Amino acid sequence: MNYTFHWLPAFRALPEMLAGALVTLEIAVLSMLLGVFFAVLLAVASGSSYRSLRALAATWVELARNTPSLFQIYMAYFGLGSLGIHLDSFVALLAGITFNNAGYLAETFRGGLRAVPQTQVRAARSLGMGQVQAFRLIVLPQMFRIVFYPLTNQMVWAILMTSLGVIVGLNNDLTGVTQELNVRSFRTFEYFALAAVIYYLLAKLVTVSARLMAWRLFRY
Amino acid sequence: MFSSLFETTFSLNDLWFMLKGAGVTLALTGWAVLGGTLLGVAFGVVRAVAPWWVNAPLGAVLDVFRSIPLLIQLVLANSFKTIVGIHWSPFTVGCVVLALYMSAYCTEIVRSGFLAVPATTRRAARSLGLSYRQDLTEIVFPIALRVALPSWIGLTLGVMKDTAMVWWIGVVELLRSSQVIVTRIQEPLFVLSIAGLIYFLMSFPIARLGARLEKRWREND
C-alpha cells in the first residue's frame, strides 16, 4: 500500500460540505412533506368507489414500488424532457423522490387507515361530527401514531436517496459538493469518507429526534 | 410529440443489449442476495442469542451500512480497493458492497423473526426432550421463517432495484445500458420506459407473491 492519506484538504472543505448537507436535508424534508400529501390522497383514492381513481392510485403505487428510485429520478430528468417538460436537476430529484415516497407511504397510510376501527367513525358521526371533522379529529391522530415509525424510516430513506441527485447533475447537495471537490483533487476516499460521516450523522439526527418526538407525542 | 414513439430507430439489437443489461442486474442481485442472506442469517442469529457486549457493537457496525447512501458506499469501496491494491472488477466490488448492504437489513429481519418465537414455545420444546439444536431446527426455524420470509422477499426486491446505482462505478447493468442507447438514438422517454417495464416485470410478480404469502400465513396464525 503506497498511498498517503491527505485528510487536511477534506477537513478544510468541511464548511462547503456542511452547506451541502443543508441542501440535502432541505430536499429530504420537502420531498417528505409533498410525499405525505400525495400519499394521503393516494390512500384515500385507493379506497374510493370510483374505479378510475383506484386505478390511478394503484398505478402510482406499483410503479413507485417496483422500479428503482434512480430510474424514477431519471424519468423526471431525461424522460419528461421529451414531452417538452424540462426540469432542472433539483426539481427532477425532488419530483423523483416525492414520487417514490408517496408510493411507499400510501401503502403505509392504507394500513394505518384500516387499523382505525370503523365503529369509531360511526361513534364520532353520531356525536354530531361532520365527515371531515371525524376524519381530522378521530381517524388522523390515531393513524398518525401507527404510521409514525414507518414515516421516520422513510425520512431516512429520503435522505439517502438525495445522494442520487449527483447522477442527474445536481452539484450543491452533499454528494454533489463532494463530487465537485473530488474531480478537482482526486482525493476520492478522503472526501467521500467525510461525506459518509455527515450522512451518518444526518440519519442519526432524524432517528434520535423522531424518538424524542414520539416520546413527547405519544405519552398517553 | 408522440410521433417519435411510432417512428423509432430503436432496433431489436438495442433491445437485446438492454436484456443483457438486465442479465447483469439479475447476476448482481443473485450474488448480493446469496452473500447478504448467508451473512444476515449468521449475524441475525448472533444478535438474537449473544450477550449485549457482542450484540451492541455488531448492531452499531451494521447500522452504519443502513445510514450511509449506497452510492457513497460504492464509491468508497471502489477507491479503497485501489488504495489497498486489490484487483477486483467493478462487478465484484458491486457484488461485495451490495451483499454487505443487504446483510445489514437481513440481520434485523432474521433477528426479529428469531425473537418472534415465544419463549414459552421453546421451553415447551425443551421440556418435551428436544435438544437445543433440535429446538433451533424443528421449532424456531419454521416459525421464524414464516415471520421473516415476506420481509426477506421485499428486501431482495429492494436490493434488485438498488443495483441500478452500481453503474456509477462502471458496471453496465440495465439502467446504464438504456442510458447508452439513449445517448445514441436520443429518445429518452421511449428507451427509459422499456427499462422501467423490464424492472417492473422482474419485480412485480415476486412482490405479489410476497404479499400473498404474507396474507395466507397471517390467516393461519
UniProtKB/TrEMBL annotation, chain A:
| The UniProt record lists the keyword Mitochondrion | no
Q: Where does it live in the cell?
A: Cell inner membrane; Cell membrane
Keywords assigned by UniProt? Amino-acid transport, Cell membrane, Membrane, Transmembrane, Transmembrane helix, Transport
Q: Is Membrane included in the keywords of this UniProt record?
A: yes
Q: Which PROSITE patterns match?
A: ABC_TM1 (PS50928)
Family note: Belongs to the binding-protein-dependent transport system permease family. HisMQ subfamily.
> What SUPFAM superfamilies does the record tag this protein with?
MetI-like (SSF161098)
ABC transmembrane type-1 domain residues are 21-210
For membrane topology, the record states: Multi-pass membrane protein
Q: Where is the signal peptide?
A: none
Q: Which Pfam families match?
A: BPD_transp_1
Q: Which residues cross the membrane?
A: 20-44, 146-171, 191-214
Mind telling me which CDD domains this protein's record contains? Answer: TM_PBP2
- The UniProt entry lists the main location of this chain as membrane
Q: What is this protein called?
A: Amino acid ABC transporter permease
TrEMBL record, chain B:
Listed under GO cellular component are: ATP-binding cassette (ABC) transporter complex
**Membrane-crossing residues?**
21-46, 52-76, 83-104, 139-159, 189-211
Q: What is its main location?
A: membrane
Q: Which residues form the ABC transmembrane type-1 domain?
A: 22-210
Where does the record place it?
Cell inner membrane; Cell membrane
Keyword Transport part of the UniProt annotation: yes
Q: Does the keyword Transmembrane helix apply?
A: yes
Taxonomically, the superkingdom here is Bacteria
InterPro entries noted in UniProt: AA_ABC_transptr_permease_3TM, ArtM/GltK/GlnP/TcyL/YhdX-like, MetI-like, MetI-like_sf
**Coiled coil located at which positions?**
none
Q: Keywords in alphabetical order, please.
A: Amino-acid transport, Cell membrane, Membrane, Transmembrane, Transmembrane helix, Transport
Q: How does it sit in the membrane?
A: Multi-pass membrane protein
Per UniProt, what is one Pfam family of this protein? Answer: BPD_transp_1
Please list the GO terms describing molecular function.
Answer: L-cystine transmembrane transporter activity
Q: Hey, which family's this protein in?
A: Belongs to the binding-protein-dependent transport system permease family. HisMQ subfamily.
- Protein name per Swiss-Prot or TrEMBL: L-cystine transport system permease protein YecS
| Organism this protein belongs to | Starkeya nomas
Source taxonomy: Bacteria, Pseudomonadati, Pseudomonadota, Alphaproteobacteria, Hyphomicrobiales
